[in-house]
Every structure is written in C-alpha cells, then in structure tokens.
Amino acid sequence: MLPGLAMTAGDIAIEGGLVWSGPGQHHSDGLVHIRAGTVAYAGPRAEGRVPPGTPRLDAAGCTVLPGLIDAHVHLTTNSDHQHVIASDVFRGQVSKPAKLLHGLRNAHRALAAGFTTLRVMGHRGAGEPELRDFTDEGLAVGPRLVVAPWWITMTNGHGDLFYPPYTPREQWDTADGIEECRKLVRLQARAGADFIKVMASGGMSKGERPSWPNYSIAELTAIVETAHELDLRVAAHALSAEGIRRSLAAGVDSIEHGSYLDEEMAIEMAERGTFLVPTMSFNDWCQREGTLRGLTAQGVADLSEAHDRTLKSFALAREAGVKVAMGTDSSGTLCPFGAHARELELYVRHGMSAEEAITTATTNAASLLDRPDLGSLRTGAVGDVVVVEGNVLNDIGRLAQPSNIRHVVRAGRELSGYLRAVSEALDFQEAEHPTRAEDS
To answer: CA nearest 340: which of 423, 277, 425?
Structure first.
C-alpha cells in the first residue's frame, strides 16, 4: 500500500503555526485536533487537548487553513501537460473512459495543491458521479466532488456548440421548451446530480458569440423551480448582460463567469444573495500562455475582451457587496489543475485582502455548496486541512507554490506521502508547472 493511503476517516493533531479557522479567527500558536474525520478542537495550543497516541503534525512556521474549495472545474479534461490537445479535439475524440482517467489525475493534482473539494461541471457519461461515490466510500483517494453530471443547453446554445459538429448528438444533449427543460432537470437528479448547471448565454465556441442569451426567462424559471423542488441549486453559465439578467429573473443560485455584469445587475445579485464565481484564471492563463496551450493567436485575441470585462465585473460585484465564491474554470491544459491558487492571487491583485480571498475558497464556497460542514475549522466541521509553509495572510502567493504545501489532510488522514508517491509513479512531475509565472 502506498504511504499515506487513506480509506477511512482518521485522527490527527496539527500543532503550532498560524491557524486560520475562518474569517477573523486567527490563532498564532494554534492547535487543530481532528477525531474520526471531524474537527474536535481548533484554537490556541494547550496541553491535554489531544489524547495520547494521536498522530501529530508540526506546523511551526506554517499557516493552517481549512481544505480549500474550487467551485468551478471541468474535471475530465486533458491531464497530460506535455501533450497539448486542442480543447475541442479532446472533447470530440477522446473516449469517455479515457476522460475519466484524465479526471482522476486532475483530481490528484487539485488535492496535492490543497483543494480538498471540487464543484465539477461534468461531461455527460464521463463517470464523475461514480468517481465521487468511490471517493466518498473510501474506495479511491481524491478531493470531495460536488457534481453536475452534465449541463442543460438549448439547441444551438453554448453547451450544444461546445462540442464539434462531427460529434454525434444523443437524446437530452439539448432541451428546448419548458417541459423538456423540466424533464432534463429530473433526469439529471436521477443520475445523481448534486446541482444543476444551465447554459444561459453564449460562450467562445466556434459558431457562437458570448453576447448571445440562451433560453427564455420562462425556460430558465422552469429549470430553477424544478431543481429547487428537488433541493438542487442552479449554476448559470452567463457571460452576456442579457443572459445574466434572465438568470437573475429566474432565481438562479450562482452566476458563473458574469463577464458583462453591470452595476444594476450587481446590486440585484447582492440583494438576492446570488453568488458570483468569476473564473478569472481561465482567461488569465489563456492571455499569458494560450498559444502554448492549444489556442490560436486569434483565439487568444477573441478572449481578450472577455478577460477585460471579467475584471470590471469583479470590481462592480465587490463594490455592490456580491458574495464571491472562488472558481477557476480549470480545464485541461488551458487552465491546469494544480494551479488553482492563481485565482486567489488575481483576487488580491484586483482589490481583495488575502483573508478576503481565502474566504472565497472556504466559507463562501461552502455556503454556495450548501455545505456548512466544509470551509472552516470550527468544531464539528469536516477535518480537511492544508498546511502551507510561511504566512499566507501576508503573501497569498505562497499557496501557488507546490513546494510550500507541507501537508494535505482529508477527513483526518494525512495524504501528502500518498500524493507524492502517486505523482512519481504516474510520472506527472509536470504538475510542478510554474503556477506563478511572471506577468507580462
């Protein structure tokens, strides 16, 4: 058995260092005690808090954080950073079993970077719900997965055009009209959906424009009402102003990307409690390295306006008091898994404090997922922890350096040894890609 392999919840104590339990809750010489996979204590270090024989980790000189959450990833995408495949080619030509194996490698990368929970925008039939269940049952090692098995899209909408024209379409790849939309929500719930993703605007695929709205307010409302009746939240891919407006009118729970958000809509989002998942990382990677990652020069140029608009939307959202949940849009080689903390660096560069940024990947993201047991180190929370060398509150960039991730704990089990062994065994040392490349 590989070192550090965790099949069940465990007990562990993490001693010393700066313990960040949640917003405004810091302990400079702290202690976190996890018992049976759950936080039993987090606070100042004190003798007698930990039973004899409990495994201990020394976190002196480190920051101790709750396990981090990336609220927008495409898991079953290309994991081979040394073999760049254009995104549309990968989607159209790689088999579903191969996509799942790529997804497992991507999951390991995310976990090694301290991201213990991923909200997955799934690809139909690629096996993400099954991987989630295997992980939950202790049959596989990986981050917690919160999965939408596939998206809901109209004919000629973003999700339809996301796949190349030569890809055979199956029934329910698209849904048109109120009744088809309702049925597809129910089918996804039956397939094990944790949430619903709907395409409410165009994107950057061939043959479409991000300015196009997708779906009427009536269709979006039917999706939201049906999902909420089944206790499922709804994430809306919405770049265009009209797509965002219709999504808000329908009552979606989160706006993904939100590139063309305006001041009026930002105020409405804040009033409604609608989350924004900005996904700055994707455009950032594409602008800096897109031609090395399978994009044409024209493709990079086409993304430039969306990149600039996302920064403006982020500023408007913060000014209005919109709740921001961190999401990267990690997707194959275009926005690599393992580099998730780049998103937090961008938030800090564009106005957030380091603590605000960390909150987007912990407390806020857990709230979006409706998982109050995640994203904090309070008593009773899930025992997911990342130990980072140095003071992350002074330098958010420390999270982005793989060598700074001292320990990753999932449900009370220390997994760093396992993750290092898997990395060596599967020869993905390219996971040590430069996550903090110099800005141009």
So the answer is: 277
| Amino acid of residue 402 | P
Instruction: Give the list of residues 6+ apart from residue 294 with CB closer than 8 angstroms, or none.
Output: 84, 85, 86, 87, 333, 334
Domain 12-66+375-432 has CATH 3.10.290.10: no
Domain boundaries, given as residue ranges, for the chain? 12-66+375-432, 68-368
**Strand order through the sheet with 12-15:** 38-44, 30-35, 12-15, 56-58
Under DSSP, is residue 220 helix (H, G, I), strand (E, B) or coil? helix
Please give the C-alpha separations between residue 202 and each of 156, 199, 210, 241, in angstroms, as whole numbers.
9, 7, 4, 11
Q: Where are the alpha helices (DSSP H) in 122-176?
A: 128-136, 158-161
Whether the model clears a pTM of 0.85, i.e. scores above it, the answer is yes
Distance CA 193, CA 191 (A): 6
The mean pLDDT values, 10 residues at a time, for the chain of 440 residues are: 54 97 94 97 92 96 98 95 82 92 95 97 96 94 97 95 86 96 98 98 84 95 98 97 98 97 97 97 81 73 80 97 98 90 97 98 98 97 98 97 95 92 61 39
3-state secondary structure 301-329: HHHHHHHHHHHHHHHHHHHHCCCECCCCC
Question: 35 phi and psi, to 5 degrees?
Answer: -125, 125
- Could you give phi then psi for residue 26, rounded to 5 degrees? -125, 145
Reduce the DSSP state of residue 232 to 3 states and report it.
coil
Class of domain 68-368: alpha beta
Please report how many Cα atoms fall inside a 13 Å half-sphere around the Cα of residue 166, on the Cβ side: 6
* CA angle in degrees (0–180, nearest 5) for 335-401-99: 35
Q: Which of 318, 225, 216, 335 is nearest to 276 (CA)?
A: 318
